[in-house]
Amino acid sequence: MSVTVVLPGTLRELNEGRPTLVLGGAPRTVAEALDALREAVPALHRRVVTEAGEIRQHINVFVGDTEIRRARGLDTPLEGDVELVILPAVSGG
Amino acid sequence: MPETATGHELDEGDLFLMVGTTKGAFLLRSDGSRRRWAIDGPHFPGEEVYALAFDQRGGRRTLWAAPGNPFFGTTLRRSEDGGATWSAPEDRPVAFPEGSELSLKRIWQIRPGPDGDPDRLYLGVEPSCLFESDDDGATWRPVRGFLEHEHREAWTPGGGGMCLHTILQDPAASDRMVVAISTGGVYRTEDGGETWQARNRGVRAEFLPDKHPEFGQCVHKVVHHPERPERLFLQNHWGLYRSDDWGDEWVDVANGVPSDFGFGMAMHPHDPDTVYIVPLESDQFRCCPEAKLRVYRTRDAGASWEPLGDGLPEGAYETVLRDALDTDTATPAGVYCGTRSGSVYGSATEGDSWTLIRAGLPPVVCVKSAVIGA
């Protein structure tokens, strides 16, 4: 299995301009994937996750087409080859 | 013509005006005359910048900024070349510790520490806490006595958020500091931050059933002068006060102002009796009275206040927020204010007359000035 993080345009500069990032370590949940993201690119991680370990209020994280708050949150399982899509919400100002 | 963010070359005697907005920071430079300003920006386009500071201690020329946005959080960045280049922290330079269940929402204040301790800096953040660094901002930690304060659970957010926005230091005793939070009120330490005592006696809380609680007041800004550091001036959410004893007792000094509601407050750099405020009509309307933008000045420590309007707009529903009023250290002193409608006004005559420095910016939330080499 592999987990590919898909980044919004505004965060790609932190990934050398690339839109995707393949995570190592075969993470089994969203929480494990975010831990792997922190190891790989800390500057990306802190823009998605607060220091309390929560997804930022105005950030949505999707596993495939499912926003994880509508699934099992950080415990949402990752199975097979899967994309973890990070998108800013339509909120904000 | 679109502006660029290339920074400024700063020469001795230049005036440096740092303007934080909800959509980035703008840096303005003038020579000592303060007649013409060159503008540079936006820096951090799309990000709010509520806190800026220029640290000249120990020969530095370090510009600090706290850009952030509701999507990706806030961070702290520095420039050593007038904004030409900025640091890009890889990880979280400012973070609450594990187990606190708190996370950084916004940095409201960047405060260089005492002159004699040039590697020390402080931050006031949301949710209300004081952070300190003793290695020139390389690492930061929350001040434990404040993080774990027994009142924390009872503090609540004001309209802008639950912020620690004021940090005052006793130049003669580094263990004494005063901070202010909204809401929560004024707190003082005498032991370098180990313990903090509420210091709000006399300050009213118009929005609570008990108008004079020990703490819980919505203090908007506190200032003092280094020559008389024990004398504090306070702009409250309704109320204008002075304390002559580091906040032990507060007395009402709203003598002759059209409203004692307001946000910003600035100390004259050379005269400990002179303070500037911008009264706003009410906590509901939050615009200048009679649609006339007026800075008010006291020259007698609050016994009386005079309106200053020469050059300021009328027929204008303006708001000046808590960190958008500042003075410089030149002679005569300069005074600056930025409005929520995106205008920045300046006075090179201690407030007697004003000019529009720049209009058309995003909403201004922070104005800080520095005289280079002073």
Explain this structure to me?
The complex is a heterodimer of chains A (93) and B (374). With 93 residues, chain A is α+β, with helices and mostly antiparallel strands. Chain A has one domain (3-88): Ubiquitin-like (UB roll) (Roll), CATH 3.10.20.30. Chain A is 19% helix and 24% strand. In chain A, strand 3 and strand 4 (66-67) form a beta hairpin. Chain B is mainly beta and 374 residues long. Chain B has a single domain (15-371), classed as YVTN repeat-like/Quinoprotein amine dehydrogenase (Methylamine Dehydrogenase, Chain H), CATH 2.130.10.10. The two termini of chain B are 33 Å apart. Chain A binds chain B through residues 10-11, 42-43, 46-48, 50-52, 54, 56-59, 88-89, 91-93, and chain B through 22, 69-73, 75, 88-92, 95-96, 98, 100-104.
Provide a short characterization of the protein structure:
By secondary structure, chain A is α+β, with helices and mostly antiparallel strands. Chain A has helices spanning 30-40, 42-48; strands at 3-6, 20-23, 59-63, 66-67, 82-88. At the A-B interface, helix 2 of A face loops of B.
Largest sheet of chain A: 5 strands, mixed
Taken from the alpha-carbon principal axes, the silhouette of chain B is globular
Instruction: Report the span from N to C terminus of chain A.
Output: 38 Å
Helical residue percent band of chain A: 10-25%
Largest sheet of chain B: 4 strands, antiparallel
Number of domains of chain B: 1
Q: What is the fourth-level CATH superfamily of chain B? A: YVTN repeat-like/Quinoprotein amine dehydrogenase
Number of strands of chain B: 28
The number of distinct helices of chain A, counting runs of at least 4 residues, comes to 2
The neighbouring-strand order within the major sheet of chain A is 2-1-5-3-4
Strand content of chain A: 15-25%
Question: Number of helical runs of chain B?
Answer: 1
Q: At the third CATH level, what is the topology name of chain A?
A: Ubiquitin-like (UB roll)
The poorly predicted ranges of chain B are none
Q: Which percent bin holds the helix content of chain B?
A: under 10%
